[in-house]
Amino acid sequence: MRHQHAITVGPVRFRIGADWAAPIAALRALYAGYPDEERVPDCTVRLTAPRPWRRLVRPAVTISGDYWLPDTVPLPLAQGLVAAEMGMNLQVALGWRRHLLLHAAALERDGRVLLLAGASGSGKSTLAALLMLAGWRFLGDEFALVGREDGCIHPFPRPASLKNAAIAVVRAAGGVIAAEIPGTPKGRIGYVRPPAAALARMAEPAPPALLLLPRFGAAEAVAAVPPSEAFVRLTQASTNYVALGEAGFVALTRLIAAVPVCAIDYPDSAAALRLVERLWAEARR
Amino acid sequence: MSAHALVRALVAPDTVAALDEAGWTGLLTAARAERLLGTLAMRLDARAAPAGVAALLSDAIEGAEAERRAALWEAEMARRALAPIGVAPILLKGTAFAAAGSTAARGRAIGDLDILVPRAALAAVEAALIGAGWEPVKTDPYDDAYYRRWMHELPPLIHAERDRLIDVHHSILPPTARPRPDAAALCAEAVPLGQGLWALAPADRIVHAAAHLLADGDLSGGLRNLWDIDRLVREQGVAALRDQARRHGLLGPVRQALRLAHRLYETPCPDWAGRFNGFDALVRRRLLVRDGWGRQRHAATRFGFYLRSHALRMPPPLLARHLAIKALPPRWRPAR
Known about the structure:
The complex is a heterodimer. In chain A, 32% of the residues lie in helices and 32% in strands. By secondary structure, chain A is an alpha+beta fold. In chain A, strands 6, 7, 8, 9, 10, 14, 15 and 16 form an eight-stranded mixed sheet that branches. A five-stranded mixed sheet of chain A has the order 1-2-3-4-5, covered by helices on one side. A three-stranded antiparallel sheet of chain A has the order 11-13-12. By secondary structure, chain B is α/β, with parallel strands linked by helices. Chain B has 15 helices and seven strands. Classes of the chains: A alpha+beta, B alpha/beta.
């Protein structure tokens, strides 16, 4: 590939190649300060033009690599960074086997991990960014990596990805948006870089203490979720649960047995932070 | 060229000791792209690999084991679905190799379930599968009608809950192709594998692999297909192969497959396969198109084989009509 860059995040080493310089330059800037190591990459991402002339004329980025999905629509070159991030997510979601993957944010305090699991739009990324600003160690906002042997949550601290109104919320809380891209299929996207301390400790796993299922936009409410329901919801929130077979079942049942699970509804971020603090204190007692 | 490195590593696993980081990267990427990573991992001694690579290889072995288990379960599901109508599905390709315990299945990627059933049973088989939870994938009426009229298989079905595809074949080549395999004989001579599962007779497995590789497709995924042939030939020899190939009108593709397997994988090759020729060299070039990023190069060669694959499948007037209709937006296509 004409332009390329390698990035290590937690246990995963990515190699990203592109037909253009711009997405690679944007990646280098966003991932500045991540550790570098000479190592055979685990995942390959390719950002290429759908047709040779589309490198120059109305340039468009097709996402592929070791794994790809059929019928993905190319993004305009101006959204090359989003394409790179989507490509990295895709390779991990479809190819990674060394941990059970949960679509969840993870933050650590006092040596224990808080998990926030929910669909896109539930507010977990926003909440994760706010908790990170409040001093929690950021382990990731897209995938929580559950160790198959140790049951711990392994850091995968990619830049947090915020959408639309969340960008202003995090900015108002003192967050710095490292890159902002308007007009993507999911609207305006902003990336927040993890603080240096989170990067320095990205090889340090920690055991889980609490799992919350947040839902933004409803009146404040807390409901304990029984283990059976939590189990089913998390099988759906995992991209590799089926692929891992028995190992996935063992890792997930151990997680569910180890932590209390609560669904929380909240009307705004202040309420969410208050709820998290309260439930965290209860869980640690 | 990373596809060369892949072939070399499969044939002589010891040679990977000389690889540097870039060499390993290219090798693993090409192996993934050709869906041969599990196979490669089973061939290599993980202890000879650098630490990060050893973990990738062990992931690949575990992934292949999961695919094997899922494939055999899917075969069992099909067996149960078809038992009430008295049809025993004949497993084809990867699932058959896995069920037969063939060395071709070692680390092999297995995606869809391919089965062969007697043509007369097709309608009953389709109804039984739909009754057991499979549903059509193709929503375009032209595509559906095209499969039924011109292809050697039903339109693909997918299981609503397990999300697995099944291809139900009634022959091993389209009826419009020039070679006319004797599908009834393929069914009649199938062999039991135990537990209610069946596979083609050993020689017919090679005939089918060669037909699939050289008389049907555009050769994408060909390295894996040829590796199957290599393993099958080494395992069972070529005793009945020539007669079976001739009987199914597929002596040409079988001979070429043996020549290519010999050239790429050093497969033992009988004299009757003939000498490696100029067209073989072009096919070899097509098989080795992957670069170190997993991309396919040689666009012109690939396009040529793409056109050829269609030309082999059907006579020119039918092909022209088909390609013209496929160029139309779906709502303008005729239903038949």
